[in-house]
Each structure stands twice: as C-alpha cells, then as structure tokens.
Structure of Mechanosensitive ion channel MscS domain-containing protein:
Amino acid sequence: MEVALSYLLQYKSLLLSILKALMIGGLGIYLAFFIRTYICKWLSKQDPILGSFISQAFFVLFLILTGITTLGTLGVQTTSIVALLGTIGLTIALALKNSLSSLASGILLIVLRPFKQNDFVEIGSIAGHIESINLFQTSIRLENGKLAIFPNDKINNNTIINCSNLIKKREVQWLVNIASLQQNTQDLLLAIFIDPPLNLKPSDIAICAVGLDSNGMDFHIKVCAENPSQIPQIKDHFIHTAQTTLSEITSIKEIK
C-alpha cells in the first residue's frame, strides 16, 4: 500500500497532466462538433453552401488548435509542434498539390459565388443542379437523376454557365378588333414593335387572327420583353401608335 502511494505521489503531476489533457481534448472535440453544427445552421438560413463550407473550415481549425493545446498540457513544446506541422504541411502540399488546388478553387467558388445551391448550371459538357460545395469537391445532380461529384479545380478551370441567372422574359398580350382589314394589316401591327423606338425582335412577337364577328376581325398579339421594365413603354407605344396607324381598330383589350 505504501509502495503504491509513493508511486502515486511520485507521478502525481504526470497523472494530473494526463487527466487535464484528456479533459481538454474531449472538451475541444465536443466544441468543434458543436461550433460546426451551430455555424452550419446559422449560415444555412442565408446560404446553405456558404454555411457548409465555413462550418467545415472552423471544424478543422478547432481540431488542430485542440490537438496543439492538448499536447502542450502534457509538456510537449508547442513551438516544436508548430515547426513539425509546418514541415509536414509542406510535404503534404507537395504530395497533394491537386487536392490543395481543389481547396483553393473551393474558396474562390465561395467568394466569387458564380452559382448557389439549386442553381442549374452548365460546366463543360455537364449540366445539372448544384447540390453542395465542400472543401475539395462540388456535387451536381444531373438531369438523369445521377449525382456527379467534381473536384473544385476542374469546375474552376471550366466555363461556367449559370442558366438560373438568365433574365426571365415578361409577356404582355392584347386582343385587338379591326373593323376592316388591309392586305398588310399584320405587317403594320408587327412594324409597331420592331421599328424604333422599341426595336424588338420579330421572334419575340406573335400576331395571329383568332376570330371574326360582326365588329370585324380579332387579332391576338403577344409580345415578350427581355427586361420587365420595358413593359410600360411597350404598352403605351402600342396603344398610341396602333390607333394612329390603323384607324379601323375598334377596340384594344389587354389580356391579363
């Protein structure tokens, strides 16, 4: 009993250091998981991809700091650890330069934000919806339902076409009644839109006769605008010019 007690007294400081190191290590690992979960939930409300990326970065950083602190508690010189980590890091960087390139590309994708989660993108010959961006890779759900995982450097070195950022066209439609027709009535209607000041594309305009009644011929007109802000100008110009150019118009009704 006395021998055991003497051993305990002799190695008391070492045992306390080990116990303290275990407590610090356990607490550090718990906090690393807790912080990762908290940051991910907090940032994911604004941007899921950004939340996932930053939470993983904090998780890895916190684990490294926990490891250094734990070893320092055991009496290991942390300066030597940092120097050793630097040497190991350089060796790993040379051996895994492609992976580090993917990591750097992942950071660029997060900072420059060429796309976000659920965006439909075309990258090279691949097209699909963005599911997630991790530290080293990006997941894309292809149109056939398969999940494709690409290294971030491959994505960053390709042309990225974000189809979700295309300007959505706005449409405006009218039902126009013309009492007496001319041979070039449809051409006159079309000219209102393609001539200055509107200068719209003929492919964005559809004009067709839809019926004949006692008042005359009904024409359905549909116009697409690249920029929604053009719609008021298109409406005002068409109504004013149509009534001036075609005196035979009896009514113009906008179709909502």
